[in-house]
């Protein structure tokens, strides 16, 4: 289907369906068209650069995270 034919078909649709088509085109654009890389994007940053890294380092109860989770589960779900 050519671009002109596609536009004709979209114009024949009711306005709600036109909006759905526009939303779908936007979805496909985000999925298939590469955007310029933005250095401030959180997806591209290393976990080591995260402001949350080490936020619980001073908590005495979380020195052994596996033990902490095990104890938490026991206290919440023990019968």
From TrEMBL:
Biased composition (Basic and acidic residues): 55-64
Domain of life: Bacteria
Ranges of compositional bias, category Low complexity: 39-50
InterPro entries attached to this UniProt entry: DUF2281
Domain DUF2281: 5-61
Disordered as annotated region, ranges: 34-64
Pfam families in the cross-refs: DUF2281 (PF10047)
Protein name according to UniProt: DUF2281 domain-containing protein
Species of origin: Rhodohalobacter sulfatireducens
Organism lineage string: Bacteria, Pseudomonadati, Balneolota, Balneolia, Balneolales
